[in-house]
Predict the structure.
Amino acid sequence: MKLFRRDESSTIDESVDPSVPDVEKTAAAPASTTPGKGRPTPKRRDAEGKRRGPVAPAPMTAKEARARRKAAKGNRADRKAAAADRRAAVQERRARMLAGEDKYLLPRDQGPVRAYVRDLVDARRNLVGLFMPMALVLILSMFVAPQLQSIVTLAMLVMMLFMIIEGFVLGKIVNNRVIERFPETTDTGFKLGWYAFVRASQIRKMRAPKPRVGPGDAV
């Protein structure tokens, strides 16, 4: 029996062809090997530096530094032309902002709702708009006649009371009109009322954007 088992194992071993490659080892081995570049990958900073070219050495003196800045800015005529262009661009932007073009307005003034609120305020004759000039007159009168200080203080308190009352009334009117005109808007409440109050408290000629309607006009 032992001899039979040895013969069986030897028969099995001999049946294997040594020329046939091992399938598992062949599958585990990589299909192909890519040779290395033979050099390290350059850093991004070094690559960008090579594309830009050599960097000029730092100036040794202050005079050399001023000369470089002057050369970079160009001659006097070019600098004057560039400054004139910048001033013209700023003036044009301000003119369009004062005209009410939505693209050039501040974020707080943009949108049809805010434009409608400005028209509502500008079409009203608001007592709160007289607070600043009247307060200035009362303050100046205190320096001219110090004995009127108590009267001026009382007058200013009364003016502030009227200003607060009108602010609440104006905010209520503005919110109701906005809800009627723009029922889907979420820009309502105290924030919108405060926006209307701040514009109403400004002198009409100093409002920005400039009023598009006159006092008493229908909006």
Summary: Residues 149-181 form the longest helix (33 residues). Residues 76-105 form one domain.
